[in-house]
Write a structure and sequence with these properties.
Blueprint (H helix, E strand, L loop, with lengths): L3 E5 L2 E3 L5 E5 L6 E10 L2 E10 L6 E2 L7 E2 L8 H4 L16 E9 L2 E11 L6 E7 L2 E7 L8 E5 L8 H9 L3 E5 L14 E2 H15 L6 E6 L1 H12 L6 E5 L25 E3 L2 E2 L13 H4 L7 H7 L4 H7 L10 E6 L7 H14 L6 E6 L17 E3 L6 E3 L4 H23 L4
Parallel strand pairs: 2-9, 12-13, 12-15, 14-17, 15-16, 16-19, 19-20
Antiparallel strand pairs: 1-3, 3-6, 4-5, 4-8, 5-7, 8-9, 10-11, 11-13, 17-18, 21-22
Length: about 425
């Protein structure tokens, strides 16, 4: 019997793990398995060497590689260990990600297999939004609904997070990926972003989709996680639930995404309300210093600078997000090796503040101790840890390891999906 791959399921949503096995091999043979995935015009690749069992089989959920781009047993290791250039997702999210697996023995081809990761389920529709001052992309589930709704906010890289919104819609949640800077028709920088813009976005989403049980969650990553908590605390009548991915417990300055103009910059305001800048943690702070970041001779970690600000309790108290004003459940997702800022400590502060205030709704905090700041998307490459910031151009590390970040990517998504289903009235 010739060698052959068994991949199950061969076609499904991107958040569904695949069972990848290979049979019909010579017992004990060393087999190199490679995975190649074209991503927005560039091929991403990983490979590893395995020893076939006595029955001539290899099962990625059972067998650890002898050597290669990842270590240990990991059913989707050949995906999260991939490296490459460019974006992870195609510009057209209706096109699935197609992965080709090849097996070689001693340089000779042994087998080929394929599987597809779908970002948009059949019937999900994409609607660009540029009306009433709101800019983003709305993804609607295939059926008529009504559905719970969610607003997706990016972090300091700006732009519009369409892949995450498309996946939410594929699971029956109306999802608006809202842009607020770094996209056509929007400011280039985060500096002086008015919170009223997001209130307008929430009102637009509510009027457009008429959500199930009037439920609208706000989910954000990094600066978007800070923003999600801010919006829940500032507009509690508009926000039904908050999902904070690697969030902050404090209002931060413009930092890496700031307008470099005089009077702004990384120590200038990031957010405004009623035309006034919000007090941030770097403001009149006696201990805050950029030296641990600016003077780093090895890998720069923004978190090292952020920790210096904690030495001035009065300044931090002025900048604390009043999360006790949030009128719904809160989910916090963090990494213990966060290189951008201490999202685990920040999440602990948020959780403690809510519990101390007797918050009447669920407060759920999930932390992955070895993961970094890039807790993003399930079953995608997790190898981009150090990078140049898309706005500032400064090279820095986000922390964690590919394996730890890949685990957090899956765990965070599963937790978030269950959280919204639980509180949005949606069937599992």
């Amino acid at each position: 019997m010739p060698a052959a791959f068994s991949i199950s399921p061969a076609v499904d949503l991107i958040d569904v793990p695949r069972r990848i096995a290979l049979a019909g091999l010579p017992a004990g043979a060393e087999v190199t398995i490679a995975a190649e995935t074209p991503r927005d015009g560039h091929v991403w690749r990983a490979e590893a060497v395995f020893a076939a069992g006595a029955d001539g089989s290899i099962d990625l959920e059972r067998d650890a590689p002898l050597l290669g781009d990842y270590a240990g047993v990991a059913g989707m290791g050949l995906i999260w260990a991939q490296t490459g250039q460019g974006e992870l997702f195609p510009a057209d999210l209706s096109h699935p990600l197609e992965t080709t697996l090849t097996a070689r023995i001693g340089g000779e081809h042994a087998a080929t297999g394929h599987f597809s990761q779908i970002l948009m389920a059949k019937g999900v529709t994409r609607h660009p939004v540029a009306e009433d001052g709101v800019i983003g992309t709305l993804f609607l589930p295939a059926d008529a609904g009504p559905h719970p709704a969610i607003m997706i906010l990016n972090g300091s890289g700006g732009g519009i997070n369409e892949p995450r919104a498309a996946l939410w819609a594929s699971h029956g949640v109306a999802a608006l990926a809202l842009g607020y800077f770094g996209a056509p028709g929007l400011p280039k920088y985060i500096s002086n972003t008015p919170l009223e813009y997001f209130a307008r976005g929430l009102d637009w989403l509510r009027a457009r989709v008429r959500p199930l049980n009037d439920f609208i969650a706000v989910a954000g990553q990094s600066r978007g996680g800070e923003l999600a908590l801010l919006l829940g605390a500032t507009f509690p009548d508009k926000v039904s639930a908050v999902l904070g991915y690697v969030p902050s417990a404090f209002v931060h300055s413009g930092q890496a995404a700031a307008d470099p103009a005089p009077g702004l910059g990384r120590d200038g305001p990031g957010w405004t309300l009623d035309g006034n800048p919000l007090v941030h943690q770097w403001q009149d702070n006696a201990t805050a210093s950029w030296k641990p970041y600016d003077e780093a001779t090895d890998t720069r970690r923004n978190a090292d600078a952020m920790l210096t600000a904690l030495g001035d309790p009065a300044a931090m108290a002025r900048a604390r997000i009043p999360v006790e004003r949030i009128a719904g459940p809160v989910l916090l997702l963090s990494g213990g090796d966060d290189g951008a800022w201490p999202s685990d400590l920040y999440s602990l502060i948020v959780q403690s503040s809510l519990l101390a205030a007797g918050h009447p709704h669920e407060v759920l905090w999930k932390n992955w101790p070895a993961a970094g700041h890039s807790i993003l998307f399930p079953h995608t490459p997790a190898t981009r840890i150090a990078h140049r910031h898309p706005v500032s151009g400064i090279a820095t590390t986000m922390g964690g390891t590919p394996a730890a970040n890949a685990g957090a990517n899956v765990g965070a998504w599963e937790t978030a999906l269950a959280f919204v289903r639980r509180h949005g009235g949606q069937a599992g």
